[in-house]
Design a protein that fits this description.
Two copies of one chain form a homodimer. The first copy, chain A, is 40% helix and 15% strand. The first copy, chain A, is globular and about 60 Å long. Chain A starts with 11 loop residues before the first helix and ends in a 6-residue tail after the last helix. The structure holds a DNA duplex (24 and 24 nucleotides).
Amino acid sequence: MSRKNQGQTLKHVLLERLMHYYSYLGQRGGEQGPETISSAQIAKFLNMDDTLVRKDLAAIGVRGHPRVGFRTQEVVAAIREVLGFNEAHKAIVVGAGRLGSALAAYSGFAKCGLFVVAALDNDPLKQGTILAGTVVQPMENLESVIRRHNVRLAILSVPVEPAQEIADRLVRAGIRAIWNFAPTAIVVPEGVIVRHEHIAVGLAELAYRLKHSPADNV
Amino acid sequence: MSRKNQGQTLKHVLLERLMHYYSYLGQRGGEQGPETISSAQIAKFLNMDDTLVRKDLAAIGVRGHPRVGFRTQEVVAAIREVLGFNEAHKAIVVGAGRLGSALAAYSGFAKCGLFVVAALDNDPLKQGTILAGTVVQPMENLESVIRRHNVRLAILSVPVEPAQEIADRLVRAGIRAIWNFAPTAIVVPEGVIVRHEHIAVGLAELAYRLKHSPADNV
DNA sequence: TAGATTGTTAATCGATTAACAATC
DNA sequence: TAGATTGTTAATCGATTAACAATC
């Protein structure tokens, strides 16, 4: 029952901004916070233009109120609806190394409707340990876990070498989307969603700014 | 000794694309890989327009060769130079939880000139353990470690609650840039660089696409 | 040479911002 | 009411793409 955003596909950058609004509003108090917020307040916090905030919110069907601003709850609800946070997504974490276990245990995902139902690892030492409320399972169980929990999303946090092979296995097992934290590109058939999370990308900006910052004249 | 990019500040999106070129070329073989590459090859892999690749490379002063393409080594060298990967950056990891230790141990940073020289945590159980080749230190040592190693960059991976306070301490101790993995905004004085790495942002795109993917008609 | 590929100008496209009327 | 804030059109700006001449 989407509001008014049928048809057009929302742009990547818009989705990101919506997520920033969402997390700002959450941080600001959510249910208990102020009941309304103006586009200017949001814009100021996120260092952007208030017109753009209004445009974005209009794009997902939220209407503001002159002199009052936007009702926080309406904004939050609309973003959740548009981003699909209302249908609880079950996910498995494949590869329970340091990063994988950090992701499995990350509590912020629940606010976005993401629930890690299982973690798997091929290291016998990790198997059987408790992570995110469940027991770490051997890789052999991959297919059965996916089937049993009807999982559509996999968080891939294995080393580079086995990444592609495991991705293939995930796809064969019916996984519909892969959130890839392995620092390598993986190839999947058309129709399967992949998002490559490239942590070092952030370093490009940091290193560049560090190099060019005024106080840098050694 | 930058090539020809004096004056203008490179845009965020350009920096990101440079990083993507860099990691593609690295993945493709670096030193041992093919000696040249065409803008069309890069563009195809990254799903973009080849003109944009040429524009980007021209912007950082790399010249291609008609009929031949770009010399891989020249491109790599120019990106390293522009992004500041040639001056080795020392970093500390503050908060050696799962995410922090994953970051401290991540081997991909070295290719970008980033070296983690120490990790700190206030958990006595973690103190003294080995991480990234060094001993995890108590938080009391923060200032002395920064001074001793002349560290300018801090990777912040502590819980939300103490994040701001620790950030303040980092700034007072002379840290010039903070790479913030705590899921909360932190405030720093002008002149200090902060990059907030917001992992859940990626989820916005994934959840949205999962919701709107064609095969989703349950 | 012919042809592949670059480099660059001009055209297009889309996103952001400015301006301001509408609203409560 | 007066004034704060939205909603929306028009203007601007910048980024991407198309076209094509230059080059080896």
